UniProtKB/TrEMBL annotation:
Membrane topology, record value: Multi-pass membrane protein
Sequence similarity: Belongs to the binding-protein-dependent transport system permease family.
Database matches in PANTHER family: ABC TRANSPORTER PERMEASE PROTEIN MG189-RELATED-RELATED (PTHR43744), SN-GLYCEROL-3-PHOSPHATE TRANSPORT INTEGRAL MEMBRANE PROTEIN ABC TRANSPORTER UGPE-RELATED (PTHR43744:SF13)
Record's protein name: Carbohydrate ABC transporter permease
Pfam family, one: BPD_transp_1
Record keywords: Cell membrane, Membrane, Transmembrane, Transmembrane helix, Transport
Localization of this protein: Cell membrane
Stored PROSITE patterns: ABC_TM1 (PS50928)
Source organism (scientific name): Candidatus Chloroploca mongolica
Membrane-crossing segments per the record: 25-44, 90-114, 121-142, 154-175, 196-219, 252-276
InterPro entries, alphabetized: MetI-like, MetI-like_sf
Amino acid sequence: MALSEEITLTRTLETSWRTPRLWRFAGYLAMLATVIVIGLPVYWTVSAAFKTTGEIYRIPVTWFPAEPTLANFPQAWNAAPFERYYLNSFITTLGGMAAEVTLAIMSAYALAFLRFPRKQLVFLLLLAALMIPVEITIVPNYLTVARLGWINTYAGIIIPGAAIAYGTFLLRQAFLSLPYEVIEAARVDGAGHLRIMFNVVMPMAQPAIVTMALLSMVAKWNDFLWPLIVTNTTNMRTLPIGIFWLRNSEGLINWGVIMAGSLFLIIPVLIVFLMVQRYIVDGIAAGAVKG
């Protein structure tokens, strides 16, 4: 009897030891599959930017440039006014991001710390706004911008996207996770709401604010549909639209030139991401602590 119990215990321990390893192995496989699905197009973009047109169309596919060339980059740069595209993208991205982060911080602070009638109703309306596709608001926004005379202007590109429900929601959740005792201590010391927001809440919620700003920057830097609709001259086009017209301007599509132009769009965002990546996990985790 003792022998059978010992065998059973041994098998149980072996099973309990193997199960976590199997789940861990499955997790690694899932991560590898995700990296391949996401990373392969990015790798192909970078690789094709250094290939000749003939090599890009060659069968079988070459995963490494057989004869690396830099000719695609000056050709792409000279095929369209990228200096103007960069200027427009920087202005609309930085202006839109600044407006969105400012409004999100203020509205999130109000929802987290201020008392006013129908506060929960306002928050429910905010959650409902998260469910509305952006495409539904394009026609009303366009009619409003047209009546204000903002077609083909920076204001027409920036202002309709200055308030996004997701940013307010993310920062509200992050603000609620902050230690309330610190905020109460600031109130006891005579600090008003603006001082508490700027000197207490924002420094403690810096990871969440940086994360929200990065998400806003990436969305506005890559925005294609709204700038395409609200602008009608080359001088007001942004980088994503410029790359689209670069593709259309070629009689035979020169994918090497297009991929080089795509790198003009990707590299600035990649640099910013590498600079602030340490804030991203902390910021998203802070927004998920308390509901």
